[in-house]
Amino acid sequence: MRWRDSVWAAVRRRAAASGGAFTRGDLLAGELAQIVAETGSRGKSPEQTLSRELQELRDAGLLIFSGGGVYRLAEAGGDQADVEAAIRTQVERRVMARVGQSPFRKALLERWEGRCPLTGISEPGLLRASHIIAWSACADERERLDPENGLLLSALWDAAFDRGLVSFDAEGEPVAFPGLGAATRVALNLEGVPKLGRLSAGNRARLAVHRGWCASGDWPEAA
Question: In this structure, are residues 35 and 50 in contact, taking their beta carbons and an 8 Å threshold?
Answer without folding.
Answer: yes
